[in-house]
Amino acid sequence: MNLDIALWLSQDAITNGAVYALLAIALILVYTVTRIIFVPQGEFISFAALSLATLQAGETPGAVYLLIAGGVLVVALDTSGEPWDLARQRLPGRLARFVAPPLAAGALARLSVARPDALWLQILATLAIVTLMGPIVYRLAFQPIADASVLILLIVAVAVHYVLTGMGLLFFGGEGLRSKPFSLLSFKLGALNVTAQSLLIVIASLALIGALWFLFERTLYGKALHATAINRVGARLMGVSPNLSGQLSFTLAAFIAAVSGVLIAPITTVYYDTGFLISLKGFVGATIGGMASYPLAAAGSLLVGFLEAGSSFWWSAFKDPIVFTLIVPVLLWRSLSAPHSEKDDAQ
Amino acid sequence: MRSRLTTVLGLATLLWGGGAAASEIKIGVTMGATGPGASLGVNYKNAFQLMPTTIAGIPVKYIILEDGSDPTAAAKNVRQLVTEDHVDALMGAVSVPSTTQMALIADETRTPAIALAPVALPPDKLGWVFVVPQPVPLMMGAVVDDMKKKSVKTIGYIGFSDSWGDLVLQATKKNADPAGIKIIDEERYARADTAVTGQIVKILVANPDAVVVGGSGAGAALPQIALREKGYNGPIYHNHGTVNREFIKVGGPAAEGAIAPTGPLMVAEELPDSNPIKKVAVDFDRRYEAMFGAGSRNAFAGYSYDGFLLLEAAIPKALQKAAPGTPEFRQALRDALESGQSVVGVHGVYTQTKTDHFGLDGRAVVLVSVDHGAWRLLK
Predict the structure, then answer these.
(1) Structural domain contains residue B282
(2) Which chain A residues contact residue B246 at CB under 8 A?
(3) Which DSSP string corresponds to A130-168?
(4) Do residues B112 and B30 share a domain?
(5) Is A166 in Cβ contact with B34 (below 8 Å)?
(6) Helix (H) or strand (E) holding B212
(7) How confident is the model at residue B12 (pLDDT cuts 50, 70, 90)?
(8) Which residues, including other chains, have CB under 8 Å from residue B146's CB and lie 6 or more apart?
(9) In angstroms, rounded to a whole number, what is the distance separating the alpha carbons of residues B278 and B265?
(10) Greater confidence, B256 or B124?
């Protein structure tokens, strides 16, 4: 072990840690607003990475059709059971919210297939496809049971995870894909060979974290989410729609997952079920942050990154057990330092 | 009362089973086209679309059950196939643990079974099980032979942190030790890992003459890319699980020069005409690629197909002794399978006998390398 190796490993740790940090933040965001442990996040990562690779291969990813079908289903669900007059009145608005955006994402995907050189178009299409899945998944799976207990929400989240994994296998096949690198640039920093790709990951993570901070502190929607996170009933009394906050938080989380997926797609092989393991590491980071604190979660994720890099160097056969065992001392420390409150469960 | 009812029911089942017997041959298959083994399982399953629906004039019914690459589900499937469908032969599965489950039940219920993946059982448990894939030591033997040619003295190993990684490592050791080649570093990684930097850095520090990768498919591209990116220039050897087009697609330019052992079907056209496997393999490749696209040929579909060829060769003999659907037929089928008849498949020439349920020789291995974006015979 010399300085060069330490630098190599640190670079790796920071790149991975940045992705885990993003995912941890999305998990906390969804959990605090809706009390849902966002298990399907992993699928959004896989969907994004695989959609990008599929677009680059010149095909329209099957996820587009899933998205459009989901949008139509949402409108059908919203409309069913309403009196005809009312339904007809509301229909254009609903179509504009749930069907038009997926169709637009589909058109974007088609457009980017037609123009194989336009990387930005492929990325845009990928982000659109995956981000729009967020609110649709919330509307279909979670909105009808928004007031259920944390445990039931978790079980449904696991079910959604399995459904989406199956869809992923159907759309993208069982083999892994890797997308083209955004940039082949790299430069020497001492002994270190820093690639533009890994730099991009860190910059994008920092930018997203900054943007989220801005959203929560400076915008009305962000404050509504923040308010729901602090006190659901109180926020509702103040006129914050719980459905809207739920859909909004899922949109944001899906967007973050999509960005993570796009960022990792060129540096690793992504399979239809890869995302789950990645988001599980984000979950360890989120747990270190007590599923509540964003800065702690980001720091925790970075710790996961370093632990992973270190253990892959010294005991690569035990890398994952080491990373996931981290959760045990963290939970012990948290349960000793902060007594468990029954309030969350009772709500 | 209840026991009488059971007897009656049992008799009725027997009669029903006997009645259905003569009309068709049933082959029960447990397959993992979903779950962690999906990338291989889909290929295994595709091959069944090429198989004829009659053998020796008798209709064949393939009952394919999905096990999600889960050994417990595979065991359940096999029990169901044997006890409810009364299959004449079993085929499966995608992973070593699932195939082992199938083998155990086949042995217990005295049903002939074709193992499409390696089985982790001692030979005395394989009385009813016939193994199609080349034994891993046979494959890695060809790799070590190539190392000797290139005067490699030290190997760095990086493999999956699962039983596949173990199997490849053991097979490499078994061949490398007598050749005086030392494994100086052993690293592991998981298929879902996003980076192998730590492991690769450690291999670079050890600086072996060659690296052996114990991964499979596109998952083996991760160390290949990382090694080349970090400037490793020695030969990188893979195993037969890696030989598919996804590895090249994912590996891109970094995959060039990767060497792996595989069955002859991957490079069928490049084989000499004197090789008996060429004709069978070229025919299979042509039909498979007509259905699943150019370049879609893969070892796994070949295993399914060879499994079928073994049964196709044995079933006419068994039919002379008994009718399908009976224990006598299953016994006769097993005897026919181990009769020492040579069957030319797409992976090799199988000569399976009472004492050898593998029956492959050196003809079942060729070394290939990635050359201008395709697997080609290593010259």
Answers:
(1) no
(2) 175-177
(3) HHHHHHHHIIIIIGGGTTS-HHHHHHHHHHHHHHHHHHH
(4) yes
(5) yes
(6) strand B210-214
(7) very low
(8) B237, B259, B367, B378
(9) 8
(10) B256
Give A51 to chain B, closest Cα distance, Å: 15
B81 with B197, same domain?
A: no
**Binary contact (A177, B188; C-beta < 8 A):** no
Q: Do residues B143 and B125 both lie within one domain?
A: no
Q: Strand pairing partners for B154?
A: B182
Give DSSP secondary structure letters for A277-329: HHHHHHHHHHHHTTTT-HHHHHHHHHHHHHHHHHHHHH-GGGHHHHHHHTHHH
**What span, in angstroms and rounded, lies between the C-alpha atoms of B87 and B10?**
17
The verdict on B7 and B129 lying in the same domain is: yes
User: How far apart are the C-alpha atoms of A330 and A307, rounded to whole Å?
Assistant: 14
Q: Are A331 and A290 in contact (CB under 8 A)?
A: no
B127: containing domain: 2-134+297-361
Task: Delineate the domains of chain A, giving CATH numbers in brackets.
Answer: 3-346 (1.10.3470)
Q: What would the pLDDT profile of A20-61 be if each residue is shown by its tens digit? A: 999 999 999 999 888 899 999 999 999 999 999 999 888 889
Given this model, what pLDDT does residue A93 score?
A: 87
Domain total of chain B: 2
Q: Are residues B25 and B109 in the same domain?
A: yes
Residues B141 and B253 in one domain: yes
pLDDT, tens digit (0-9, with 9 covering 90-100), for B296-309? 888 899 999 999 99
Residues in A touching B202 (Cβ below 8 Å): 313, 316
Same-domain status, B125 and B145: no
- Chain A touched by B202 (CB under 8 Å): yes
Q: Would you state the structure tokens that stand for residue B306, as one six-digit string? A: 């060879």
CATH, residue B80: 3.40.50.2300
Handedness of CA B287, B343, B46, B25 (dihedral sign): positive
Percent of chain A with pLDDT over 90: 38
User: Is some CB atom of chain A closer than 8 A to the CB atom of B189?
Assistant: yes
